[in-house]
Amino acid sequence: MERRRFLSASLAAAAGAATTPASAQLAAVPKSEYYLLRRYNLVSGPQLKLTESFLAGAMIPTLQRLGLGPVGAFRLDIGPETPAYYLLVPGADLVQLATLDLYLAANPEFQQAADAFWNAKSTAPAFQRAESTLLAAFPGWPRITPPSAAASRGKRTFQLRTYESPSNGDHVRKVEMFYSGEYEIFKSAGFQPVFFGDTLVGSRMPNLTYMLSFADLAEHDAKWDAFRNDPAWKKLSSNPRYAFDQIVTNITNLILSPLDCSQI
Question: Beta strand 34-41 with 192-201: parallel, antiparallel or unpaired?
Fold first, then answer.
């Protein structure tokens, strides 16, 4: 209820500030996407090449035919249990994302392209395990925003951060914090956010996940220093309502690099 109130208030404030009628203003607000975030746990050796070939030659082309994208495909560089690859799929239809594997199982074109991966023998599996999370984009950031370097295949590094909260109420407050000034602080520090998502189905809930992009780790460090030292952040984080140690109990922090087939 609390979350609905502050989201409704955000939309109402935006509509009230506009000179056009509220109905027209709300109609212009982009509909928030959903995200399928899948992790493939791998072992070094043939699984790496096989999985990357599967993503590039079967999965991403099929997703494009379905009108889904831009699709992100990433290698885990810094984080637990490497090697691992991540797939990030945006879509407007939550059911389509949730039932994607059922569609793939019945699609002959995909099956032909994916055969080596999809039908790998138990003696030489294509991957160890796959873990999937379904997320809803924050209304304040309703669409994936690829970094500008993605179009030119330029150098880029990604940070994937997940915040776990001790209760649903604390989780709501952490999400609310983004609408209470945190977005603006990210922008002021020069960040390039890719997405912000609220976990609908996944492990270690309640939690949220977001992705940021950088040219390299030096830029990553510089922008986080700017964020931490921003007076607006110091003021927001000192608000007792958002006391960090109370509303966030664990952070998973991963550094990723794009695979050659990534569209992000």
Answer: unpaired
